[in-house]
Amino acid sequence: MDIYHANFAGLLALCAGLSAAQYRPSASKQKSSDNSSADLKEKQSNSPQASQHSFLLVYALVMAADWLQGPFLYSLYTEEHHVPPSLVSTLFTTGFLSGAASGYFAGSVADRRGRKAACLFFCAACALSCVATVVPSVPVLFAGRVLGGVSTSLLFSVFESWMVTDFHNRELARGGGDLSRTFGTMSTVNSVVAIASGVASEWLVSVTGTRKTPFVASVVLLGVAFWLISVQWDENYGDTGDNKATIKDQDKHITSDSKLWTTLTNPQVLALGLASTMFEGSMYLFVFFWTPALKSAQTTTSALPYGLIFASFMASALAASLAFNIITEWQVVRYSTLLVAILATANFCFFSSIHPKSEQSTFWVFCLFEATVGMYWPCTGYLKGKLIEDGMRAQVYSILRIPLNLFVVVVLLYTGDGEASSSVFSLCSKLLLGACGALGMSLLKSGAP
């Protein structure tokens, strides 16, 4: 067993231990009547009328198709297609710009034309993106990135929208269904699928000898998902919202705009938005630069097991997510304090990666950063839920993502190639340190949860 297999095995053992620790001993001390009620609810949630197995299966397939591509996209461009690093940066930038541009209209089109149709379109667009990615032609590669950006926007909007509307349309709550349980299951499925996809992509490349194979496998999974959506899902739509507004409606719209502005200028929301921009922007840049950074720390000429390394990163994120559940269940620390600690740890990771000391130390620092990612998502989700009203949640979330996309695009354009990982990590470290200070002064002093 080589070092990366041993690392991965150790991380999986950690995940298993943290998963077992999710169950508190006090759970067995419930009254018998409570146990009967819980058993009844569990039976109801597994009944056919409350089943969401069809959605979860499709969700697993489309996420697997997405995760399979991640570990080998950069190396496919540079080592098989022989694309110059500066052009690789432009390709990634194109994907971010495409995703940002399509994100503003993808949801509204899905609401009008149907979420099932949008999910089917995602499968087709993502499959075409995979096909275009394996063709060694620069114009075709750019077309693949444009389709990839559109696909990403759809993946993180229309599937969840379809699931929530379907849950309400079929009144699954009456049959024992629980929407929060579905979201929790989705998170677990995503983490497990990511780990399995990393291992599978590494195996496919080792067997076939080409980095194109994971993209071909993604096309197959997307085809299966397309078929399942076609035959098992019902169509649903969003609110059409005709514009026949009365004077009262217009006054309400003005009031809503005022509340939106008040929310956006709230110091706590501004601090949280700054933290999100810096952390998520650094996360996207890490996806682009971890491969060349790890290669630069390598002392041998052997090929790095990208899929296995990626699976290790995902195992680190899963372990942190499981640890987050334990921390919050026992109320060890406030969410705002935890977020500051997450930013500080991410800052340490990037600072330590500026001048890597060895391949293994760099690998474990990157695993630590992925652990901060695993804790970041549920922590910020809770804080946003407390600080932002439901009536304007989607608007505020969209507006807060604008500087994020601009940040990533500007940095990619500025650096020009994947060999500039040290300078990018240095920039991320400084920005995270500033965001950490701003968040600490705003959220902690204001008594945020």
TrEMBL record:
Topology relative to the membrane: Multi-pass membrane protein
Q: Which residues form the signal peptide?
A: 1-21
Entry's localization field = Cell membrane
Where does the sequence pass through the membrane? 55-74, 86-106, 118-136, 215-233, 269-291, 303-327, 333-351, 363-383, 395-415, 427-444
- Its principal location? membrane
Q: Which SUPFAM superfamilies does its entry note?
A: MFS general substrate transporter
Residue ranges the record marks as coiled coil? none
- Disordered, as annotated region: 27-47
Q: What keyword terms does UniProt attach to this protein?
A: Cell membrane, Ion transport, Membrane, Signal, Transmembrane, Transmembrane helix, Transport
Q: Does the keyword Repeat apply?
A: no
Compositional bias per record (Low complexity), positions renumbered to this chain? 27-38
Q: Does the keyword Signal apply?
A: yes
Q: Which GO terms describe its cellular component?
A: plasma membrane
Its biological purpose is as follows:
Mediates high-affinity intracellular uptake of the rare oligo-element molybdenum.
The name on file for this protein is Molybdate-anion transporter
- Species per Swiss-Prot/TrEMBL record: Coniochaeta ligniaria NRRL 30616
| Source taxonomy | Eukaryota, Fungi, Dikarya, Ascomycota, Pezizomycotina
